[in-house]
Specification:
Layout: H1 8-19, H2 25-39, H3 55-66, H4 71-87, H5 95-108, H6 115-126, H7 151-160, H8 170-183, H9 191-214, H10 219-227, H11 233-251, H12 258-275, H13 294-305, H14 312-323, H15 328-345, H16 347-350, H17 354-365, H18 378-404, H19 412-422, H20 424-434, H21 440-463, H22 465-485, H23 497-518, H24 522-531, H25 533-565, H26 589-605, H27 607-611, H28 615-629, H29 636-650, H30 655-661, H31 663-670, H32 676-689, H33 691-714, H34 722-751, H35 755-780, H36 784-788, H37 792-807, H38 811-826, H39 833-843, H40 848-852, H41 860-871, H42 878-892, H43 898-917, H44 939-955, H45 959-976, H46 983-999, H47 1027-1053, H48 1069-1081, H49 1084-1089, H50 1091-1104, H51 1113-1127, H52 1130-1151, H53 1158-1170, H54 1176-1179, H55 1183-1193, H56 1199-1214
Length: 1215
C-alpha cells in the first residue's frame, strides 16, 4: 500500500486481530501474516517494491485500543505493533519514528498485561544496531520465541541489523533498559516472556553495553535475579548466553573502571546461581520440537562457568565434590569443566589448587585398578580415566601457555608437572612393569596400575613444553632399563613368562609416551625431541635389537612346527586387541614385537623425533623390520604392524635410505611364495607414502611380473601352482599401486602440486605406461597354447592391471599402446585367452580422442572382431567379459560420425548378437509374442549384448530401446510356452534374458575416483544424464502390459476358483523373474517414485522365485532389501497395511524357510521384524503362522539366522 492512502485494506484485519479472541495460536499467526502482507512489507523486511505503511498511521489506527481499559485488547494491540516493527523494519524509517517507538515500548514495560508485546518491540528495536563479534560464541538470538511472520528475519537481523535503517540512540536504549530493570521482574513472567526478556538483556549488552554501564545500571544484579531458579531448558540456554555476554562486557571495560570491583563483589553470588545447575540432569521429552539435549545445556553451563576467572576459588571445591560422587555423568562433566576452565582462566587463578587438582585427577586415573572393582565396571571406570587424562593434559597445556608470557607469575604448569612426576603412581607403574606377577588376577591389576601411570605421563607429553621434556627425560631411561633387563630371557611356548610380560608392558608404556609426545604441538615436539635425542636413539636401538632377535626365534619356531607337526606354523595366533595385554597368555613375543614396531612407527612418524635418530640406527631398524617381514606365516595384523615404521620412514627425510636398503630386499622377498604377501603389503604401503619411491617400486614390480609370467605360463597345467598364485599377488599389488598413483596425481593436480611433486607424478606416469606396455609385450611373446591354458583368475588379474595402467595414462601415451592392442586383436592368428584379455582390457579405458585417432578410421572392424571373440565363448569367462566391455567402450566413445556408428551398431546387433542370443526374428508388436523366437541359453552372448546395449544407452542411441523390445518379446514367447513345454528346457534362456535386462542397468554413475573396472565415467565413457532411468522406464513400460495380461489370464483359469481357499493368482514366472532383475538394478530414486505401483508386483516376484527352476537366491536377497526399504517408510507401510498383507506375510514366511541361502532367510526375518510397526489388529490374523515359522527358525543351522530369529520371535511375542 502506498503511503497516505486510507487503511481500508488492513483496517478490518487490524480490528479482527485486536478485538477478537484468536481461536488458536496457528490461526492468530496466519491472520498476523495476512496483516503484515497488507501493510506492504510482506514479511520481507521492507524489501518489496511497495512502500510500507508508516508506523505512525498504524499507531493512529491502534490508538483507541492502546488506551483501552480492556487489558486483553491493550495487550493484543501492543503485540500487533511489536510484530509489525519486527517483521517490517522499514515501517519506521526515520530516527524520530524509532525514538518514539522506543519511548512507547519503554512505557509499555510498566503495563503488566502488555509486557510481552513491549518486550518484543524493545528487542526488535535494539537489534537494529549490528552486533559485534559474539563473545559468547553462540549468538544472543540462538533460541526462538514464538512463531511469527518475522521470526527468521529477526534472527538474522540480530547479527547484522536491517541495512540502511536507523537504530535507537544510546540514551533511548539506556532509558528502555532502566525501565526494564526497574519494573520487569523476569522470574515472575511466563516462559515466552522470560525468553524475550533474556534475549533483550543479552542483545542490549552486546550492542549498547558501554552506554548501559556508563549510566550506572546494575545489569549484573538484574541478571542474577533473572537467572536464579530458572528451570525451563529454552530459557536456561538463553540464561547461559546472557551470562557470557554480560561477563564479556564487564571484562572489556578499562582496568580503572568500577565495573571490575562490582564484578568481584557479585562473582560468588553469580557462581552460586549457576552452580545449582551443575551437573545438568535433563532428559528431553519424546518428540521435543525444541531439540534441546542435555549436552546443549551442559555445554552452555560449562561455557558460563569458564567465562569468569573469579569463579576459580568456588569452582574447584564444586568439582572436587562432584568427582567424589558415584555418578558417572557427574564425574565426566566435572572433568570436562575443569579442563575448559583451565584453558580459559590460565595459570593464575588455579595456581593455588594444583595439588588439589592432581589429587582428584590421580584418583580417577587409578580408578580402573581399584581393589574389588568388578570386571563389568572396568569399561566405565576406564572411560572416566581417559577423560581425566585429557583434563590433565588441558590443564598442563593451558598453564604452560599462560606462563610463557606471564612475566614471573606462579609456575602452575611446572608445579603440576612436578607433582605428577614425583607421585608414587610413576614408581608404581615401573614396579608393575618390572614384576607384573604370574597370577592372572595379579597380572590384570598390575596392567591397570601401569596403564594408569602411563596415562598420566602421556598427558604430560601431549601437553608439550617443559612437561613433555621432563616426562620423557625421567621415564624413558627407566622404561628402557625395564625392557632391557628381560630382553635376553628365553621364551617358552611362544610366551616369555615374566620376561614376556615385562617386555609387553614396558613397550606399551613407552609407546604411550612416544605417541603422546608426537601429538604435541610441533614446536613443543621438536623441543622435547632435541632435549631427549639420546633417549630416542636408545629406544630405536632397543626396538631394532629386540625385533632382530624376535625374527630369528619366530622363523625357527615356524620351521620347527612345520617339520615336526607337518602343518603351518603358529603364525596364525592373533595379536591381543589391546596394546595392554590383560592376561599373561597374551604377553607373547609376537605381541612384544608388535609394540616395538609401533614404537618405531611413532618415532619415525614424528619429524622432530625422526631427525634425532642417527643414520646407522635407522638402517639397523630397517634391517630388523625386514627380517621380521621375511618370517613365514605372519598374520595380517603383524604384517600391518611391520609395514607401519617403513611407511613412516618413507614420509621422512630418510626415504632415500629406505630406497637403498629396503627396496631391493622387499622386491626379492616379493618373489618368494612364503614371504610375498608381507613384502607386497610393505611395497604398497611405501608406494602410497612416498611419491619418490613409487616409480622405483612400480619398475621393480614390472620386472618381477615379466619374469614370473613366463614361469606361470609354463606351469599353466598346474592350476594350484605356486608360480600362478605368486603372479596373481604381484599383479594385484601392482594394480593397487597404479590406482593409488592415479588418485594421488588427481588430488595433487586439484590442489596445485609443487615442482617436486610434479616431477614425482611424471615419473609415476612413465612407470605406469611402461608397466602396461611390458605386460602386453610379455603376454604377446607367450606361445598360444600356454597363454590359452592359463587360469581364469590369472587372466582376470592381468587384465585388471592392464586396465588400471591404461586408465592412469595420458591420451598421448595411450595412442601407441592402443594401436598395438587393436592390431593384435585384428591379426589373422588366434589369440590365447591371456593375450586376448590384456589386449581387450587396454581398449576399455581409452579416452574418446584416442578412439577417434585409432589407425584405419572408425573401428568398425575392431568392434566386429571383439563381438566375435565374446560370443565365441561357451561361458562368460574373462576373455568374453573383457571383449564385450571393449566393444561397448568403443561404441560408446565412437567419433562424431552418426552414419558409421549406425552401420557398425546394426552389424554388431543384427548380424552377430541377435542371432547368437536367439533373437534373429523381428521384434514382436507390443503386448504380443507373434514372430518372436525363444531366447537361447547363451550366457556369453547375452552378457556381450548387455554390455553393448549399456554402452549405446549411455550415449543416448535409440538402438538400445530396440534391443530391449526384442528381449521382452522373446521373454513373452517363453512365458506363453512356460506351461506347455517342460520348464527346465526353457529355464536357461529365460534366466539369460532376465539377467540381460538387469545387466543393462548396472552401469556406473560414479565419479572418476571409482577405480572398479567397468564401463563408466572412471573409464572416460560418455554418460548422458538419467540414461538408466530412461532405460528402466522403457523396459518396465513393455513388461507391465505382459504381466497384467498374464496375471488376468491366471486369475480367470486358476484351479480351485470356486473352493473356499482358491489359489492366489500370479503372473507368469519368466515375466516376474525379468521384473525382479529390473527392480534390483534400477536407480533408487525411480523406485521410490514408482513404489505404489511396483510393490504388489514385488511381492509376486518374491513368491514366484522361491522354488522351481527359476529360483534365485541372490535376486531374492536384493528384492527383500528393496522390500525392507519400503517397510521403513510411512507410504510403504500404509500400502502394505491397506492391501498387501495377505500376499506379503506368506511370501516372507516362505523366504524365511528358503534353504539355499542363509542371507535370504535372515533378511526375510528382518522384514518380519519391520512389520511390527503396523497396528496389532492388522497383524493378528497371521500371528500363529509367524510363530510356527519362527519356532523352526530358532533351530536353523546358521548362527546368524538363529540370532535374528530369536530377536524377531521375542519382539512378536512382546508386541
Amino acid at each position: 500500500m502506498a503511503a497516505g492512502t486510507a487503511p481500508s485494506a488492513w483496517a478490518a484485519l487490524l480490528h479482527d486481530l485486536v478485538v477478537s479472541e484468536p481461536a488458536s495460536e496457528q490461526a492468530n499467526k496466519e491472520r498476523m501474516g495476512e496483516f503484515v502482507a497488507a501493510l506492504g512489507g510482506g514479511g520481507g523486511g521492507g524489501s518489496t517494491s511497495a512502500t510500507p505503511t508508516p508506523v505512525v498511521r498504524l499507531v493512529e489506527a491502534l490508538g483507541p485500543y492502546l488506551t483501552s481499559d480492556n487489558d486483553a485488547q491493550r495487550a493484543r494491540a501492543t503485540a500487533v505493533l511489536a510484530e509489525v516493527v519486527e517483521a517490517v523494519p522499514a515501517c519506521a524509517s526515520s530516527a524520530d519514528e524509532v525514538a518514539h517507538l522506543a519511548q512507547f515500548f519503554a512505557a509499555r514495560l510498566t503495563d503488566w498485561p502488555a509486557v510481552r508485546g513491549a518486550l518484543r518491540g524493545c528487542l526488535a528495536l535494539v537489534t537494529r544496531r549490528p552486533a559485534p563479534a559474539d563473545p559468547a560464541g553462540a549468538g544472543v538470538m540462538g533460541a526462538g520465541v514464538g512463531p511469527s511472520p518475522g521470526k527468521q528475519l529477526q534472527a538474522q537481523q540480530g547479527q547484522r541489523g536491517p541495512a540502511g535503517l536507523p537504530a535507537p540512540e544510546e540514551g533511548d536504549v539506556v532509558e528502555l533498559l532502566r525501565v526494564c530493570v526497574g519494573h520487569v521482574f523476569v522470574r515472575a513472567l511466563a516462559q515466552p516472556d522470560r525468553e524475550l526478556a533474556l534475549r533483550l538483556l543479552a542483545a542490549a549488552a552486546a550492542r549498547y553495553g558501554a552506554a548501559l554501564l556508563g549510566s550506572n545500571l546494575d545489569l549484573l544484579e538484574y541478571l542474577i535475579s533473572s537467572v536464579d531458579g530458572e528451570k525451563d531448558p529454552r530459557c536456561l540456554l538463553l540464561c547461559f548466553e546472557a551470562v557470557q555476554a554480560l561477563l564479556a562486557l564487564y571484562h572489556s571495560q578499562p582496568e580503572e573502571s568500577l565495573c571490575h570491583d562490582r564484578l568481584e563483589e557479585s562473582a560468588e553470588e553469580l557462581f552460586e546461581v549457576l552452580a545449582c545447575y551443575f551437573p545438568i540432569t535433563f532428559n528431553p521429552p519424546p518428540g521435543d520440537p525444541n531439540r534441546i539435549s542435555r549436552e546443549d545445556l551442559a555445554a552452555g553451563l560449562q561455557a558460563s562457568l569458564a567465562a569468569e576467572p573469579l569463579f576459580a576459588p568456588f569452582l574447584v571445591p564444586l568439582a572436587m565434590e562432584k568427582l567424589s560422587s558415584a555418578l558417572r555423568q557427574a564425574k565426566l562433566d566435572s572433568l570436562s569443566m575443569l579442563g575448559a576452565c583451565a584453558a580459559s582462566y590460565g595459570p593464575g587463578p588455579l595456581a593455588p589448587f594444583t595439588s588439589t587438582l592432581w589429587a582428584a585427577l590421580r584418583s580417577e586415573l587409578a580408578a580402573p585398578a581399584a581393589e574389588g572393582l568388578l570386571s563389568a565396571d572396568v569399561p566405565a571406570a576406564d572411560e572416566v580415566a581417559a577423560v581425566a587424562a585429557t583434563c590433565l593434559e588441558r590443564c598442563l597445556s593451558a598453564f604452560q601457555r599462560g606462563e610463557s608470557g606471564a612475566g614471573g607469575g606462579a609456575p602452575a604448569g611446572a608445579s603440576l608437572a612436578d607433582a605428577v612426576l614425583a607421585d608414587h603412581s610413576m614408581q608404581d607403574m615401573l614396579a608393575c612393569i618390572r614384576s607384573p606377577g604370574q597370577d592372572a588376577a595379579k597380572h590384570r591389576r598390575s596392567v591397570q596400575r601401569a596403564k594408569a601411570g602411563a596415562r598420566a605421563a602421556a598427558a604430560l607429553c601431549r601437553a608439550g613444553g617443559a612437561a613433555a621434556t621432563k616426562a620423557l627425560g625421567q621415564l624413558l631411561p627407566q622404561l628402557l632399563d625395564a625392557v632391557a633387563v628381560q630382553a635376553g630371557a628365553p621364551a617358552e611356548h611362544g610366551s616369555a613368562g615374566a620376561s614376556g610380560q615385562s617386555q609387553c608392558l614396558g613397550w606399551a608404556a613407552m609407546l604411550e609416551l612416544l605417541q603422546a609426545a608426537a601429538a604435541a604441538p610441533p614446536a613443543d615436539a621438536a623441543a622435547a625431541a632435541s632435549a631427549n635425542a639420546t633417549l630416542l636413539q636408545r629406544a630405536v636401538s632397543a626396538a631394532a635389537a629386540a625385533l632382530a632377535a624376535a625374527a630369528v626365534e619366530q622363523a625357527a619356531a615356524e620351521e620347527a612346527a612345520m617339520e615336526v607337526e607337518g602343518r603351518e606354523g603358529n603364525g596364525a595366533a592373533a595379536l591381543a586387541a589391546d596394546r595392554w595385554p590383560l592376561a599373561p597368555a597374551d604377553c607373547t613375543q609376537r605381541q612384544a614385537a608388535a609394540l616395538q614396531l609401533a614404537t618405531l612407527a611413532a618415532v619415525f612418524g614424528c619429524p622432530p623425533s625422526a631427525g634425532a635418530i642417527q643414520h646407522a640406527q635407522v638402517e639397523a631398524a630397517i634391517t630388523s623390520v625386514l627380517q621380521l617381514l621375511a618370517v613365514p606365516g605372519l598374520v595380517q595384523e603383524q604384517q600391518a604392524a611391520a609395514v607401519a615404521p617403513l611407511a613412516a620412514l618413507a614420509q621422512s627425510s630418510y626415504s632415500t635410505v629406505l630406497g637403498a636398503s629396503a627396496l631391493p630386499q622387499l622386491v626379492a622377498a616379493a618373489g618368494e611364495p612364503n614371504s610375498a604377501a608381507a613384502a607386497l603389503a610393505a611395497l604398497q604401503a611405501l608406494a602410497a607414502a612416498s611419491g619418490s619411491l613409487r616409480s622405483e617400486i612400480m619398475g621393480a614390480l614390472d620386472r618381477a611380473i615379466q619374469q614370473q609370467l613366463e614361469v606361470a605360463a609354463a606351469q599353466a597345467e598346474d592350476s594350484s601352482g605356486s608360480a600362478a598364485q605368486l603372479l596373481q599377488q604381484l599383479l594385484k599389488a601392482a594394480a593397487n599401486i597404479v590406482t593409488g598413483a592415479a588418485s594421488a596425481s588427481a588430488s595433487g593436480a586439484a590442489v596445485g602440486a609443487v615442482a617436486g611433486q610434479a616431477a614425482e607424478a611424471a615419473d609415476s606416469s612413465d612407470a605406469i605406461v611402461k608397466l602396461g606396455q611390458h605386460l602386453f609385450e610379455a603376454a604377446s611373446q607367450l606361445p598360444h597354447a600356454a597363454a590359452d591354458s592359463t587360469s581364469p583368475a590369472l587372466q582376470s588379474a592381468c587384465a585388471e592391471l592392464a586396465y588400471h595402467a591404461m586408465r592412469s595414462t595420458a591420451a598421448a601415451q595411450q595412442a601407441a599402446l592402443a594401436a598395438a592392442a587393436a592390431a593384435a586383436l585384428q591379426q589373422g592368428q588366434q589369440l590365447g585367452g591371456l593375450q586376448a584379455c590384456i589386449a581387450c582390457a587396454l581398449l576399455v579405458p581409452l579416452r574418446p580422442e584416442v578412439v577417434g585417432s585409432l589407425p584405419g578410421g572408425p573401428p568398425a572392424s575392431l568392434v566386429e572382431r571383439l563381438v566375435q571373440l565374446a560370443v565365441a565363448q561357451q561361458q562368460e569367462g574373462p576373455a568374453a567379459h573383457w571383449a564385450a566391455l571393449a566393444a561397448a567402450a568403443l561404441l560408446n566413445k565412437w567419433p562424431a560420425d552418426a552414419a558409421s556408428l549406425s552401420a557398425c551398431t546394426a552389424a554388431a546387433l543384427q548380424g552377430q548378437l541377435y542371432p547368437a542370443c536367439g533373437l534373429a526374428d523381428a521384434a514382436a508388436p507390443s503386448g504380443t509374442a507373434a514372430g518372436a523366437s525363444l531366447p537361447a541359453a547363451a550366457p556369453a552372448a547375452w552378457a556381450c549384448l548387455a554390455a553393448v546395449v549399456r554402452g549405446l544407452a549411455m550415449r543416448g542411441q535409440r538402438e538400445a530401446d530396440g534391443a530391449i523390445s526384442r528381449a521382452v518379446a522373446g521373454l513373452d514367447a517363453a512365458a506363453q510356452q512356460w506351461q506347455e513345454e517342460p520348464a527346465a528346457a526353457l529355464a536357461g534362456g529365460v534366466k539369460a534374458v532376465a539377467q540381460f535386462l538387469g545387466a543393462v542397468l548396472e552401469g556406473s554413475a560414479a565419479g572418476a575416483a571409482d577405480s572398479k573396472p567397468g564401463l563408466g565415467r572412471q573409464s572416460f565413457a560418455t554418460a548422458k544424464p538419467l540414461w538408466q532411468q530412461r532405460l528402466y522406464i522403457a523396459g518396465v513400460g513393455q513388461l507391465m502390459p505382459l504381466l497384467q495380461r498374464s496375471f488376468e489370464a491366471h486369475a480367470q483359469g486358476r484351479p480351485g476358483a470356486g473352493s473356499a481357499a482358491p489359489a492366489e493368482a500370479t503372473a507368469s514366472p519368466p515375466l516376474l523373474l525379468a521384473l525382479g532383475q529390473l527392480l534390483q538394478a534400477a536407480p533408487a530414486a525411480v523406485l521410490q517414485q514408482d513404489q505404489a505401483r511396483l510393490l504388489p508386483w514385488l511381492l509376486q516376484c518374491l513368491a514366484a522365485l522361491q522354488q522351481g527352476p527359476l529360483a534365485d537366491g541372490p535376486l531374492l536377497q536384493a528384492l527383500l532389501l528393496l522390500l525392507s526399504n519400503a517397510l521403513m517408510g510411512d507410504a510403504g507401510r500404509r500400502e502394505v497395511e491397506a492391501d498387501l498383507l495377505p500376499r506379503l506375510v506368506p511370501a516372507l514366511l516362505g523366504a524365511a524357510r528358503f534353504r539355499p541361502s542363509p542371507a535370504v532367510r535372515e533378511t526375510a526375518l528382518q522384514c518380519l521384524l519391520l512389520l511390527l510397526e503396523l497396528p496389532y489388529t492388522a497383524l493378528h490374523p497371521y500371528r500363529r503362522k509367524v510363530a510356527r515359522v519362527l519356532a523352526a527358525a530358532v533351530d536353523d543351522d546358521r548362527r546368524s539366522v538363529r540370532l535374528q530369529a530369536a530377536r524377531v520371535r521375542q519382539a512378536w511375542a512382546a508386541s
